[in-house]
Amino acid sequence: MIIRKLFLILACCLVTGIANAQTTYVVVAANMKDAFIEIQNQFQKENKSDLKVIYGSSGNFASQIMNGAPFHLFISADEQYPLELFKKGKTVNEGAVYAIGKLALIASRNKGIALDDSRERIADAIKKANKIALAKPELAPYGRASVEYLKAINLWELANTKIVYADNIAMAAMFVTTGSADIGFTALSIAKSPSVTKQVSSAELNDGYQPIKQRMVLIKNPTPDAVRLYEFMRTPKAKEILRSYGYSISN
Predict the structure, then answer these.
(1) 75-100: b (≥16 Cβ within 10 Å) or e
(2) How far apart are the first and last CA of the chain?
(3) Is the pLDDT confidence value at 2 over 80?
(4) What does the alpha-carbon distance between residue 126 and residue 208 come to, in Å, rounded to a whole number?
(5) Cβ distance 127 to 162 under 8 Å?
(6) Beta-carbon neighbour count of residue 44 at 10 Å?
(7) Residues 6+ apart with CB under 8 A from 36
(8) How far apart are CA 103 and CA 207, in angstroms?
(9) Strand partners, 103
(10) What is the pLDDT of residues 11-62, one digit of tens each?
């Protein structure tokens, strides 16, 4: 009887150890990288967890989840992809909007292209630019918003032939910071990143596109750490970090 009890205790300890050691896979939209690094650091000060964080385009992540990728938490750049996954039965629930993003236009400081949010100045910047970086609209919500914005201010035809497409919004910004493009459309959160600010000038774009509501969802059978991180994203600490990167916070 004693041996049996000892066996059960050891078995329970083994299962608990495996659960505690389980890696949590978190996929995060590229526009969130700098903000999420700060959020993750704050979270891990309070929670000892094994997180594997992957950054990229929301469209690619949604496709991978549909095909069975073993992710636990999806922090998207829009609402469309998470809600589609929910309808397909891939998530715990509809999730929650954690932030509302904004677009920014950036220009390499070496190109001498002045920026502000007026149509006239943006048109002038497009005329001076040889290449314009933009995230693929079929993969990146900020790419879709960029196209929507250019069409709304009747500058799509002027810009269209100069556009070079990036797989995600962070890569679109990198095209500008490395000199591969003269100007580019990116997320305000990326434009406000210290490493990017040193190399570009920027203009915040507030109108001409639908609000970019960013939703997160827990994938079916999430780890305990995924659930804790999901809840942490809704805390005042996380919201303060998001605001510092230019996001608006929905109630």
Answers:
(1) bbbbbbbbbebbeeebbbeebbbbbe
(2) 56
(3) no
(4) 17
(5) no
(6) 15
(7) 28, 53, 55, 75
(8) 9
(9) 187, 205
(10) 444 334 434 458 999 999 999 999 999 999 999 998 888 999 999 999 999 9
pLDDT digits (tens, 9 = 90+) for 126-139: 999 999 999 999 98
Q: How far is 170 from 56, CA to CA, in rounded Å?
A: 8
Q: What angle do CA 70, 31, 210 make, to 5 degrees?
A: 105
Tell me what pLDDT residue 142 has. Answer: 94
State pTM to two decimals. Answer: 0.83
**Residue written as token pair 């469209």:** 59
99 and 141 Cβ atoms separated by less than 8 Å: no
d(CA 215, CA 4): 48
| Per-residue pLDDT tens digits for 209-231 | 999 999 999 999 999 999 999 99
Per-residue pLDDT at 106: 97
If you compute the radius of gyration of the chain from its CA atoms, what whole number of angstroms results? 21
pLDDT tens by residue, 85-133: 999 999 999 999 999 999 999 999 888 898 999 999 999 999 999 999 9
